[in-house]
TrEMBL record, chain A:
Species in which this protein is naturally found: Haloplanus rubicundus
Domain of life where this protein originates: Archaea
Gene Ontology molecular function: any one: iron-sulfur cluster binding
Protein's name according to its UniProt entry: 2-oxoacid:ferredoxin oxidoreductase subunit beta
Cofactor(s), by name: [4Fe-4S] cluster; thiamine diphosphate; Mg(2+)
Any one Gene Ontology BP term: sulfur compound biosynthetic process
Ranges for region Disordered: 130-153
Family matches, as InterPro entries: 2-oxoacid:Fd_oxidoreductase, OFOB, PFO_beta_C, THDP-binding, TPP_enzyme_TPP-bd
Residue span, Thiamine pyrophosphate enzyme TPP-binding domain: 51-198
Residue ranges annotated for the Pyruvate ferredoxin oxidoreductase beta subunit C-terminal domain, each copy included: 202-263
Pfam families: PFO_beta_C, TPP_enzyme_C
Gene3D superfamilies: 3.40.50.970
Swiss-Prot/TrEMBL keywords: Iron, Iron-sulfur, Magnesium, Metal-binding, Oxidoreductase, Thiamine pyrophosphate
Protein's UniProt keywords contain Cytoplasm: no
TrEMBL record, chain B:
Domain Pyruvate/ketoisovalerate oxidoreductase catalytic: 13-176
Enzyme Commission code: 1.2.7.3
Name the UniProt record assigns to this protein: 2-oxoglutarate synthase subunit KorA
A single BP term in Gene Ontology: organic acid metabolic process
Keyword match Oxidoreductase: yes
Signal peptide region: none
Organism annotation: Haloplanus rubicundus
Classification via PANTHER family: 2-OXOGLUTARATE OXIDOREDUCTASE SUBUNIT KORA (PTHR32154:SF20), PYRUVATE-FLAVODOXIN OXIDOREDUCTASE-RELATED (PTHR32154)
Amino acid sequence: MSSDVRFTDFKSDAQPTWCPGCGDFGTMNGMMKALAETGNSPDETFVVAGIGCSGKIGTYMRSYAIHGVHGRALPVGAGVKLANPDIEVMVAGGDGDGYSIGAGHFVHAVRRNVDMTYVVMDNRIYGLTKGQASPTSREDFETSTTPEGPQQPPVNPLALAFAASGTFIAQSFSTDAQRHAEIVKQAVEHDGFGFVNVFSPCVTFNDVDTYDYFRDHIVDLQDTDHDPTDYEDARSRILDPGSEYQGVLYRDEDSVPYEESHGVDADMSDIPDGAPEDAMDLVREFY
Amino acid sequence: MPADFNWAIGGEAGDGIDSTGKIFAQALSRAGRHVFTSKDFASRIRGGYTAYKVRTSVEQVQSVVDRLDVLIALTQRTIDENLDELHEGSVIIYDGERTTMQDVEIPEEMIGLDVPLKSLAEDAGGAIMRNVVALGAACAVSDFPIENLNSALEKRFGDKGAAIVENNMAAARKGRDYVRDEYDYEFGYDLECTDENYVLLNGDEAIGMGAIAGGCRFYAGYPITPATDVMEYLTGRIERYGGHVVQAEDELAAINLALGAARAGARSMTATSGPGIDLMAETFGLVATSETPLVICNVMRSGPSTGMPTKQEQGDLNAMLYGGHGEVPRFVLAPTTIAECFHKTVEAFNLAEKYQLPVYLTADLSLAVTEQTYPPEEFDMDAVEIDRGKVVDEETVGEWQDEQGRFKPHAITDDGVSPRTFPGTEGGVHMSTGLEHDELGRRTEETGMRIKQVDKRSRKVETAKEREPFEAREFGDPDAETLVISWGSNEGAMVEAMDFLKEEGIDVRFLSVPYVFPRPDLTEVIEDAEETVVVECNATGQFADLIEHDALTRVKRLNKYDGVRYKADELAERIAATLADDGGETEEATT
Ligand SMILES: Cc1ncc(C[n+]2csc(CCOP(=O)(O)OP(=O)(O)O)c2C)c(N)n1
Ligand code: SF4
């Protein structure tokens, strides 16, 4: 890893096509900062993105990357990491991508605890398909497909992660640049699955969960007496309805990443020219 | 036909049928005899009829026949289910002390041996060994040296300690002695032993072994019959070579995990069966467009939907050839024997990396769960070659960069194959995407580039056809008027069916095709033949459709879709009938 990496090294030359003012700009900048500050270089980083406006991030960042299919970015990220544990893996997606079509993978990625970072750009709406309700949309949020609101409670992603034995659960706000980058950085540094739900407003389709709304409602945990390593404290905050916290809600200091518990440490791209030397032993097992 | 001996044990699921059958098969194999096994099982864990059949000879055997010489029947149903295959003089071993077997009905012309399996087992140390008592009895009937059975018991129970092995050997002896002492028959069987050393394995195991030998280091899968054995084989073995198996939450995750590992540079695989490939179809498109080398193993069973999950069928050919949205090149390899499951797996990894595309490796249920003996040299590890294709490193990456030093993962090349870099390679940074892209991997909708990329991807198929020997395996008389073509597990039955046909005066030329796409051009051989019959285990003739499409001619179809594999003698009869039947285009299957 090179120490002279700057966060702009993670910027590709592609011009983002996000709407001006979209929260995803800030979310991405924070991710790039976190990567650079933790000493990673684009050559040794792999970014996996899902589908949605959020998923375009793979194009705008410069690193090894894949733009996956809708909802399935997490297993791709785990595959990359397990095949080469030396690579820094960061997965990004939207709230629809992660908590709707990809909800199953989310829960299992959390409990698998592979050492990677998952950033969800939560705008509480489907952006790329032009404004339908997402799993984090409010119960009464009117959209083209839910004229009277979804009339179902939104999912609480932090609680999902907590219930799935998450070892690092955090939330941030894309426009609070310093704090956001710092929180993502802690997720990168965490030994295990670092999950950050980012309030990343959609200025085009969501006129409820706006920058102003978040500015007015966010409570930063660093201004409270919250101790993220205290399980009970974390639980009460995570399950607190209507709260909009920023910061690390829970961190398991004893987290053992999957790679360690399963003894996965080889760079699997490195294989012999022919069958392994002792491969005839495999045949002899069948005597 | 070599003199062969056919033996089976049947009962209810949960009776230990499988492991008992396997012990006997192993005993025969250790005695230097060739073995071919087949399993008849229902989709339930307890209850339901289950049988394990063993055919053995001193010569290679590669199919089942309609004949049973010795049957160990743990239930009346075992006898009823196999009546057609039992013949005059067949021996049925049963336990008349067992309540359900007291009024057992054994046809007059057969020999029923009432052996108190349970009480003899109890005498030897526990009722649990009653199946081993039965194996001992079978040794007496077939004049098979019990030492060979002991050697298999040692292999099977060695881990559990000497006492357990001893007890089992005692149980076997009791079974043998009981038959010798109580029944004064000349059974007429003599299972000759040889000094050969064979290995006994099934298709799934051969695929797993081929994967490790072929450099596969990452496997992700979700359990499904009959593909699970591949995952079970790799678990606990692949780690020895620095690899890893992940049991994913579903097939969508499995293929995506495998895709991620492949992008990181690992030789990577997933295995599933019919419903699983449907779930993987969306990601399949991404694998193909992002030009990721991936081996997807589909062990076919009876569909559609959950169909008959424990039964034979070759019904997914169209799904593999045409499945998924849009148009993307993929290869489909279909090994035709258990040994070939090994060789084709190695080849699948090489093809996937050389051409950077998804490769379906498909076995049918019969191939996957059936065991057969081979001389170990058949799996020659020294002959395994690994070709990783156009992998570019820090020294050579410069040749594949544009003026701004950007790597071109989708460079337009004459052969359709672009360079590859693994993460960690300086100067090789790039993004892969399922969106249509330019040479750098950047999204584009520009017509010219769209056409260039589509053509580039499909050019790989032409290149492969030129470079790779996608040939059929040929058997029989090249000048015969009748041509039979088949794929998958039908090869074994067909090879043996040719002997039966010869006796009837019917000569055939037989082609077994392990490459479905790209496949050998059979137009000329079909033109040379008077009659062509395509044999397969499905209702519509999916492979026959391809042959007709290639050769622009009609062929006769022999289809079987009752969930049971072809037996050699049955296949011979049906081919003879098909040839005799001049009126109809196709022969309808018996189901
Ligand atoms: C299998 C599949 N279903 C549906 C879609 C269409 N689709 C594209 S983006 C999207 C929603 C994305 O919403 P979200 O994840 O919240 O991301 P955002 O665009 O808001 O950033 C949908 C439904 C798709 N690409 N693939
Ligand atoms: S639609 Fe919303 S989420 Fe998408 S780019 Fe525009 S502002 Fe951002």
